[in-house]
Amino acid sequence: MSLATRLSPPALDDSRGAFFDARPPASGDVDLSVTIGSLTLANPVMPASGCFGPELGRLIPVDEIGATVTKTVFAGSRGGNPAHRLTEIPAGMVNSVGIPSKGPRGYLSDLHPAYAELGVPVIISVGGHRPDEYAPIVAELDAAGAAFEINVSCPNLDRNGVDIGADPDAITQVVESVRAVTDKPLIVKLPPMVSSIVDCARAAESAGADALCVSNSVPALPLDSVTLRPALGNVIGGLTGPSMRPIILRLVWLTSTSVQVPVIACGGIETANDALEYFSVGARAVQVGTASFSRPYAMVDIVRELTQRCRAAGATTVAQLVG
Amino acid sequence: MSLATRLSPPALDDSRGAFFDARPPASGDVDLSVTIGSLTLANPVMPASGCFGPELGRLIPVDEIGATVTKTVFAGSRGGNPAHRLTEIPAGMVNSVGIPSKGPRGYLSDLHPAYAELGVPVIISVGGHRPDEYAPIVAELDAAGAAFEINVSCPNLDRNGVDIGADPDAITQVVESVRAVTDKPLIVKLPPMVSSIVDCARAAESAGADALCVSNSVPALPLDSVTLRPALGNVIGGLTGPSMRPIILRLVWLTSTSVQVPVIACGGIETANDALEYFSVGARAVQVGTASFSRPYAMVDIVRELTQRCRAAGATTVAQLVG
Amino acid sequence: MSSTGTAGLEGLVRVRPPETGLRPEPTWDEAEVVAHEVIGGRYHRLVLHSPSIAARADAGQFVMITVPSAPGERVLLPRPMAIHRRRVATGDLEVIFNIVGRGTDVLARAVEGDALLLTGPLGRGFEVPDGDGPVLLIGRGIGVCAVMGVAEDAQAQGVPVLAALSGRTRDTVIGEADCDELGAEPVIVTDEDGSSAIEALETILRTRLDGTPPRVVMVCGSGRLTRLAVALGREWNVPVQVSLEAHMACGVGYCHGCAAPIAARDDVEGPLVCVDGPVFDAGDFDEVA
Amino acid sequence: MSSTGTAGLEGLVRVRPPETGLRPEPTWDEAEVVAHEVIGGRYHRLVLHSPSIAARADAGQFVMITVPSAPGERVLLPRPMAIHRRRVATGDLEVIFNIVGRGTDVLARAVEGDALLLTGPLGRGFEVPDGDGPVLLIGRGIGVCAVMGVAEDAQAQGVPVLAALSGRTRDTVIGEADCDELGAEPVIVTDEDGSSAIEALETILRTRLDGTPPRVVMVCGSGRLTRLAVALGREWNVPVQVSLEAHMACGVGYCHGCAAPIAARDDVEGPLVCVDGPVFDAGDFDEVA
Ligand SMILES: Cc1cc2nc3c(=O)[nH]c(=O)nc-3n(C[C@H](O)[C@H](O)[C@H](O)COP(=O)(O)OP(=O)(O)OC[C@H]3O[C@@H](n4cnc5c(N)ncnc54)[C@H](O)[C@@H]3O)c2cc1C
Ligand SMILES: Cc1cc2nc3c(=O)[nH]c(=O)nc-3n(C[C@H](O)[C@H](O)[C@H](O)COP(=O)(O)OP(=O)(O)OC[C@H]3O[C@@H](n4cnc5c(N)ncnc54)[C@H](O)[C@@H]3O)c2cc1C
Ligand SMILES: Cc1cc2nc3c(=O)[nH]c(=O)nc-3n(C[C@H](O)[C@H](O)[C@H](O)COP(=O)(O)O)c2cc1C
Ligand SMILES: Cc1cc2nc3c(=O)[nH]c(=O)nc-3n(C[C@H](O)[C@H](O)[C@H](O)COP(=O)(O)O)c2cc1C
Ligand code: FES
Ligand code: FES
């Protein structure tokens, strides 16, 4: 319903005008493009699933980022978790939104049109409770997505609370089944809390993934320090934000040195410099989540600054910059 | 060599005198004791391995804490990792000290005498690269330790970089072999980054552990944000401190509801309130690491405040306080 | 907004029917801190220069304020704050807040001349229906800030306003000066003299209204007061609008952090406080617990 | 301490033979900030009231300063700082620091009357050998602070001191006033006039010493200057002592965070800068890279 809100145009003295207009000159000199399977993105900056919606298009020039990523779409309708769904901790936040979803049909009718209007490739995130839930969703959304992000980091009700994404065999099953129903590029988004992320990454690659996203949020149980009761309605949530960065940097380093496909880094990225940290350990693209909440223009700033830093260093690609 | 340093007595106007003297009245009313196998500790507060040494006995009244825990002792001599071994990040620090060790013999001759003088039970932490390295060390140290903490969270050179502690079978092997050579209580210290900590916890319990310590530090790769080079000589280190707390709270909750033996919480504990957070999710004792660096008296403060908070609430045990 | 968040309001509120007018498009803005003072001994009043937001905000809308980073410390999520006053002539808006945690603690250290990043105006505000009688505003504590914009609009439209301003003590009651400035009739009730008790307040309001029911009741800041408003609204057969709070991350509708716990079914999400609210209709009387 | 940490000093330094005297027992103390001023345009000078530490510290020892927590996020590790001056009469000690990161940034906001938690005195300081000739101190930048305690002791013992104080510009050189106060002879050399270049400094030192070799050279703050000191020390056949830096957590010897990369073998740990140092002997000349 949020997207149906009818809005008046912004006032003319709108301060964001300058930001919208301040596009850096077309960058014939700098090539930020990145290729994921058959899809080439103009630049390597995109939102993290669940941390973006077409609503943000009102606040920033979305066409400057490389792609959009939808919130994870599940097979059925889900209401999501009880309140509170968010809390903040030092250098991080924990959410237990619980992935409300209206299913693929609801996505196509209520959400996709607004995504499609934004003018950048739409990567549709798909989730499931069981390995066999993924392929039907992707099949139904095949025409809509420029690529799919396979979110295997959801608690799997069949498997004793262990993530699908913690089990290389389950990953293989999911990715092979999805690969069978689409030719679109597949990004597999892994969970961080696994015994061997390298085994998970290799399983995804062998089963046909065109890229990996490393990683989802870190499971956590924040307490209200006064009441000593769980701070979130769902008790457990996902920790995100800058305090995760060194944890995820290690995982990106481990995976990017173990697979051939590009690794998209996700975890605590707030600035172009944070993105460069990930590029320097092998990432080829980045996703921005938590940072957009406080600074809606964080992604656009990163794209612009990456361009500028390449120029300033006389580099034509980010690879040269961190090489 | 550090312990051999000969020191002059502190000056009389020593400000810590008041702290040393400020012991709370003997607590017939409050019972903070905790039992680990055959060992009963006066209270549930102890240092985290590697974050304590007899040197701290010069700064705080160590006999007020429940136990001491040694730095992990390995079979052979190890020099530890190259500099830098420490760095700080928002709400956390990362260390790659690398566990320098002089082996069990070196421990007995150079370190144990000073530990033994402190007047509280000495829990000796033991580590290994392979499952078969543990039992001989414990056998050699059996007479010295009041209990042993089996640190299975060390990178295992035999197993492709995967922790011994991430593999329930390897845990079983380690714990059974150690159980065979000692009757002293065994605490198994688990790593946090595992696919199913519950499986690891159950394996340790079945193999004869008397308690679990949850958990060791979170593997991380901090970069120097200016040079974009690794901030630590060893590239990878362990993240500790308050930003881990919600991550470890979840693991303590998961394990303490899955095993019968007591769970000792370790991760980001700075205050009595932090300890109470862990008690409220099922922990029976706590270890304090990073917090002691900035506030050497952190552990003693926690013991004193737990006593006071019990009294203030009319509780005779911590369990009543968080019940 | 309710001091208890949305807890206990299940069934008490519902999303209003689709609005007929256009809602102002949100923007973000680096707003200069024009003034910062402590009022009522504990509240921080910030005057922020943001013509684009001040000029367009509807009564009852809010802003997300990004907490500036101080060295050695950062607060990650922006903080939602009601737009207490819109001063279109000077391009300023006012927010008043309470220090309750890390974020407001850092905000309280903003000084004149600082720039604060605002996103707004956000959410769906109050809507004054046509009709007779005054508008009855009921605010408690910081909740007064959510409703004061209505008094600004009412003054412009010549609609009389009766504003019940509740607080613990006389000097912590917010909004009296605003009422004076806006020609609204303030009713100050406090815990210390007992006048803020539900029965006492009800009696005072009936006396002041003197038999003329208001055309609408708008309430924020207390579950108890919301229940009173609903009861009176039913008796008078007038609409009751209530402003709620929820923990928020994005403020514009995409993070789904702020769903109110008032969904009809388990597989349907509750309305989002940031875009479907923060102002909701009070529910059918039958739904009231 | 070296601006490059211990990097590049492998083989250049070694642990000194066991000390003969007793080392002061460390303690922790809530020290009051007695004064805080910015000097040389960029350095922060803190005067801290801590009689128990000031009265007992040896020259070249250091303190760990716990960074006070600001609301919000905190700096976790204490910061090692040389004890620049010990003022036993007033019970104060002085530290001078540079803002280089998060920790020093927060420390720079300490104001008079604040309490700072100190642990100290720590480490093994400089040891002035018996002998003839003056003590030659060489300090660069903030490294001057590590050696100034030696000038304090030398004054008490009537030993002459020649202190080479190096810095980028004239006004950022630390220690001139201290030398005046302590009767030490300062030699100010700077990058801006070229006098801090190794050859220039060597010439200046030889001229000032006028053929009388010092009894000891003590150096801190620069790898280049350390190499110069080692070369001169060898020529004169006098001991050279150098103060090093390392990232530290505990400061007292148990965390093993500060091992210097100068171990003889892979399976043996390097000396701990916090207890075996921060002052080391310069190594055999043959070891110098
Ligand atoms: C639409 C709306 C308007 C508001 N208007 C005002 C106002 O005018 N004046 C005022 O003082 N307060 C107002 N609030 C409440 C204000 O947002 C919270 O007091 C503030 O976010 C607390 O932040 P903190 O860091 O100090 O507290 P903490 O408790 O440390 O916050 C931790 C997290 O919980 C969130 N949180 C905590 N309490 C609340 C709450 N009551 N509502 C929403 N999020 C919360 C914070 O945003 C943060 O993400 C409003 C809330 C909403 C939703
Ligand atoms: C024995 C000793 C004495 C010192 N005396 C002084 C002094 O008198 N004046 C002064 O300005 N500085 C001195 N230093 C250096 C000072 O400790 C660092 O500049 C300071 O710790 C930097 O902290 P930060 O948070 O500002 O920097 P950051 O770079 O943000 O610090 C990150 C981490 O690295 C550590 N670190 C960074 N640089 C250094 C360094 N050079 N040495 C040790 N740890 C470092 C910090 O302690 C912290 O744990 C001394 C260091 C040592 C070891
Ligand atoms: C409010 C919120 C909702 C999220 N929803 C999803 C989701 O639906 N699917 C998903 O794969 N990840 C989701 N995530 C995780 C993010 O995509 C991302 O992995 C995580 O936030 C780490 O990035 P960050 O540190 O930049 O925020 C969500 C994160 C947040 C904060
Ligand atoms: C400097 C340092 C050294 C450590 N050495 C060891 C060790 O030898 N053995 C071990 O099991 N854990 C070691 N740890 C991990 C701690 O015991 C503890 O698990 C971790 O610090 C989390 O607790 P904290 O957040 O309170 O610091 C070390 C931690 C630090 C910071
Ligand atoms: S705050 Fe993000 S959807 Fe409401
Ligand atoms: S700083 Fe801890 S051993 Fe040196």
From TrEMBL, chains A, B:
<feature type="active site" description="Nucleophile">
    <location>
        <position position="154"/>
    </location>
</feature>
<feature type="binding site">
    <location>
        <position position="189"/>
    </location>
    <ligand>
        <name>FMN</name>
    </ligand>
</feature>
<protein>
    <recommendedName>
        <fullName>Dihydroorotate dehydrogenase</fullName>
        <ecNumber>1.3.-.-</ecNumber>
    </recommendedName>
</protein>
<feature type="binding site">
    <location>
        <begin position="267"/>
        <end position="268"/>
    </location>
    <ligand>
        <name>FMN</name>
    </ligand>
</feature>
<keyword id="KW-0285">Flavoprotein</keyword>
<comment type="function">
    <text>Catalyzes the conversion of dihydroorotate to orotate.</text>
</comment>
<dbReference type="InterPro" id="IPR013785">
    <property type="entry name" value="Aldolase_TIM"/>
</dbReference>
<dbReference type="Pfam" id="PF01180">
    <property type="entry name" value="DHO_dh"/>
</dbReference>
<feature type="binding site">
    <location>
        <position position="151"/>
    </location>
    <ligand>
        <name>FMN</name>
    </ligand>
</feature>
<feature type="domain" description="Dihydroorotate dehydrogenase catalytic">
    <location>
        <begin position="32"/>
        <end position="308"/>
    </location>
</feature>
<feature type="binding site">
    <location>
        <begin position="289"/>
        <end position="290"/>
    </location>
    <ligand>
        <name>FMN</name>
    </ligand>
</feature>
<keyword id="KW-0288">FMN</keyword>
<dbReference type="InterPro" id="IPR050074">
    <property type="entry name" value="DHO_dehydrogenase"/>
</dbReference>
<keyword id="KW-0963">Cytoplasm</keyword>
<feature type="binding site">
    <location>
        <position position="151"/>
    </location>
    <ligand>
        <name>substrate</name>
    </ligand>
</feature>
<feature type="binding site">
    <location>
        <begin position="216"/>
        <end position="217"/>
    </location>
    <ligand>
        <name>substrate</name>
    </ligand>
</feature>
<keyword id="KW-0560">Oxidoreductase</keyword>
<dbReference type="InterPro" id="IPR001295">
    <property type="entry name" value="Dihydroorotate_DH_CS"/>
</dbReference>
<feature type="binding site">
    <location>
        <position position="241"/>
    </location>
    <ligand>
        <name>FMN</name>
    </ligand>
</feature>
<feature type="binding site">
    <location>
        <begin position="95"/>
        <end position="99"/>
    </location>
    <ligand>
        <name>substrate</name>
    </ligand>
</feature>
<feature type="binding site">
    <location>
        <position position="49"/>
    </location>
    <ligand>
        <name>FMN</name>
    </ligand>
</feature>
<keyword id="KW-0665">Pyrimidine biosynthesis</keyword>
From TrEMBL, chains C, D:
<dbReference type="InterPro" id="IPR037117">
    <property type="entry name" value="Dihydroorotate_DH_ele_sf"/>
</dbReference>
<dbReference type="InterPro" id="IPR019480">
    <property type="entry name" value="Dihydroorotate_DH_Fe-S-bd"/>
</dbReference>
<comment type="similarity">
    <text>Belongs to the PyrK family.</text>
</comment>
<keyword id="KW-0408">Iron</keyword>
<protein>
    <submittedName>
        <fullName>Dihydroorotate oxidase electron transfer subunit</fullName>
    </submittedName>
</protein>
<feature type="domain" description="FAD-binding FR-type">
    <location>
        <begin position="26"/>
        <end position="128"/>
    </location>
</feature>
<feature type="binding site">
    <location>
        <position position="255"/>
    </location>
    <ligand>
        <name>[2Fe-2S] cluster</name>
    </ligand>
</feature>
<dbReference type="InterPro" id="IPR012165">
    <property type="entry name" value="Cyt_c3_hydrogenase_gsu"/>
</dbReference>
<keyword id="KW-0285">Flavoprotein</keyword>
<feature type="binding site">
    <location>
        <position position="250"/>
    </location>
    <ligand>
        <name>[2Fe-2S] cluster</name>
    </ligand>
</feature>
<dbReference type="InterPro" id="IPR017938">
    <property type="entry name" value="Riboflavin_synthase-like_b-brl"/>
</dbReference>
<dbReference type="InterPro" id="IPR017927">
    <property type="entry name" value="FAD-bd_FR_type"/>
</dbReference>
<dbReference type="GO" id="GO:0046872">
    <property type="term" value="F:metal ion binding"/>
</dbReference>
<keyword id="KW-0274">FAD</keyword>
<feature type="binding site">
    <location>
        <position position="258"/>
    </location>
    <ligand>
        <name>[2Fe-2S] cluster</name>
    </ligand>
</feature>
<feature type="binding site">
    <location>
        <position position="274"/>
    </location>
    <ligand>
        <name>[2Fe-2S] cluster</name>
    </ligand>
</feature>
<dbReference type="GO" id="GO:0050660">
    <property type="term" value="F:flavin adenine dinucleotide binding"/>
</dbReference>
<keyword id="KW-0249">Electron transport</keyword>
<feature type="binding site">
    <location>
        <begin position="103"/>
        <end position="104"/>
    </location>
    <ligand>
        <name>FAD</name>
    </ligand>
</feature>
<dbReference type="InterPro" id="IPR050353">
    <property type="entry name" value="PyrK_electron_transfer"/>
</dbReference>
<dbReference type="GO" id="GO:0006221">
    <property type="term" value="P:pyrimidine nucleotide biosynthetic process"/>
</dbReference>
<dbReference type="GO" id="GO:0016491">
    <property type="term" value="F:oxidoreductase activity"/>
</dbReference>
